[in-house]
Automatic annotation (TrEMBL):
This is Oxidoreductase. PANTHER family: XANTHINE DEHYDROGENASE (PTHR11908), XANTHINE DEHYDROGENASE SUBUNIT D-RELATED (PTHR11908:SF157). Coiled coil: none annotated. Residues 1-37 are annotated as: Disordered. It holds the Pfam family MoCoBD_2. Residues 48-154 form the Aldehyde oxidase/xanthine dehydrogenase a/b hammerhead domain. It comes from the Bacteria. It comes from Streptomyces daqingensis. InterPro entries: Ald_Oxase/Xan_DH_a/b, Ald_Oxase/Xan_DH_a/b_sf, Ald_Oxase/xanthine_DH-like, AldOxase/xan_DH_MoCoBD1, AldOxase/xan_DH_MoCoBD2, AldOxase/xan_DH_Mopterin-bd_sf.
Amino acid sequence: MTSTADGPGAVTATPSQGTPLPHEPADGPVTKGIGASLPSVDAPAKAEGTFPYAADLWAEGLLWAAVLRSPHPHARIISIDTTQAAELPGVHAVVTHEDVPGDAGHGRKIADQPAFARDLVRYYGEPVAAVAADHPDTARLAAAAIDVEYEPLEAVTDPEKSFESEPLHPDGNLIRHIPLRFGDPDITGDVVVEGLYRIGRQDPAPIGAEAGLAVPRPDGGVEIYTASTDPHTDRDLAAACFGLPPEQVKIVVTGVPGAMGDREDTGLQMPLGLLAMKTGSPVKIAATREESFLGHAHRHPTLLRYRHHADSEGRLVKVEAQILMDAGAYADTSADALAAAVSFAAGPYVVPHASVDGWAVRTNNPPSGHVRGEGAMQVCAAYEGQMDKLAAQLRIDPAELRMRNVMATGDLLPTGQTVTCPAPVAELLRAVREAPLPPLPKDSPARDWLLPGGPEGAGEPGAVRRGVGYALGMVHMLGAEGADEVSTATVKVNGPVATVMCAAVESGQGFTTLARQIVQETLGIDEVHVASVDTDQPPAGAGAHSRHTWVSGGAVERAAKMVRSQLLQPLASKFGMTAELLSVSDGKITSYDGVLSTTVAEALEGKELWATAQCRPHPTEPLDETGQGDAFVGMAFAAVRAVVDVDIELGSVRVVEMAVAQDVGRVLNPRQLRARIEAGVTQGVGAALTEHLRIARGVVRRPDFTGYALPTALDAPDIRIVKLVEEQDVVAPFGAKAASAVPVVVSPAAVASAVRAATGRPVNRLPIRPQAAVQGG
């Protein structure tokens, strides 16, 4: 909910930077506590390049690791000969699947991926062996010297063919099928539109590639220092792989250089730990950019077939959809992504009848997994394409068509779940619809940079068409389908200083800043420290779906309130009143009648107070055999209006402006909220126009930042936050909602809608290819 802008979406160019958000008071900003634009403590170190990341770690007697990866997307391993590699000077150890003492695999939701390939390799880049040596170059040379004999097998890279192919995994090719049925399956509308949509393989593309350091322990265990976002789950998976009890494995979280799912991959931790225990020395690995692309999970490529039914006034009657998600070689979190896609297949619209089938299948493509807005982003692009088609068929303004169908609090999802949280979708759409449009570019050489393609492009002003498009979208918060969402936090106060201990990882979402704000607000203490994270602390869960704003922030708030009671109760008793009659504000404690007035510092003098608390939201339930169930704790919504200029001869697209209205519940940190929204929009623009990890017959092509194009500051559009709706969710701590994921979900669909408006082309694939934007092409 609140954070600095880390990760690939952090580079933005916007004239609104530094201007007030729509809700900010005219009499000046709040300076501390909830609602303040409190800066991140580590921001100066990150800006100066002195912040310690895993790649910066060092230890006495350090060895370096390198991983040998498969050159085939699918092959049988005939033999592995490590003799030549082991005999190279400087090599201390070589490990393969034979050196893995445990039987468990790894994977965030389903642990079906081995630490090293055994009999088969199932995707290009799968780890086969690892080496520890006294120099990184020696380690890489030794890894290359391992002689692996492969028998190449036919790779299944088309998810549609996965259904009929031989099993690629002992668990089969089908990971999950959800047949959602809602209402009358036989009803039809006056107007029917159909569409086929394809969503590409977006990569998290973190600023810093994966790295880690493993240190052997005297008890035979190991400590692993890495940028984990879910250290307790990583510890348990690693311990099972190492054949050790969890208490002999410790994960220490280092600085996280951006995280949108990729930090949940445990593929590096397994070889690190095995090599450290085998050599008895600290072992470090720092992945190259190519290894980073090959090693972590990507957004699920998805094929979507849709049929929308509406009446003659444009009101939706029924939505039919088939959603096929490519999970790659292993399951990971694909079952969860599919649940989100199927549940939100109709979007934030009232749909009385729905028939949706969703499948997640294994292929020999690289694994897919958790990337911000997974599932929801793919279907948003499709159902908004359908809304544009309906508007064109009925000759209704696209924004007006959406307004006639928007969801509100009390409506039903196609899963049968009632939307009980605030759902101000109409208000959001109205805000972006009524916002002033940006001016048209002037036809002069001085403004050539405003043309698609920039000043060096071949475009002509006369070939440029402007388009305006709209999109609405939604995401769920916290885990779903019965996930036990719980976090534990401890707040300690010693004199004028408070310390927060919670295993919620600061991954760029701003949890450490939020924790400081909560304690400032509750206890009136200015100096608040947040302890570093390791697995000696109670678990707090993964950093996804705004979990830590809600669950970990809620735990910190409860612990701080318990400390507050410990602080106030003696004072209240001394004056013959209850603690509830005392208030804490601006470092002062006062009673309702003014009899008692003292400072927090005076009340705390010589005292050490502490409390531990948990936060666990209300339970959810799995979807049943017809896709029905109360699967989600809460939802957040956004509306985006995109304005684009398209060269209809070259197919080049320039995003001029993105106007955003978002349902945020409550603004906890205005400056960081702006950063999160702008980062999310920019990441969405990348998904719409440039970001696609190219795979040819299962082989990753050009896994680098030349072949994989991220939007830069020159590509980022003007981003205007035209409205923030602060209708607090009563079941959420502070009433706040997810802020980062929903603009990522909605922005690609809005850009595609605007390109349709400019060109008249269907635009049914993301990222948008130039030929799709050429008028008459």
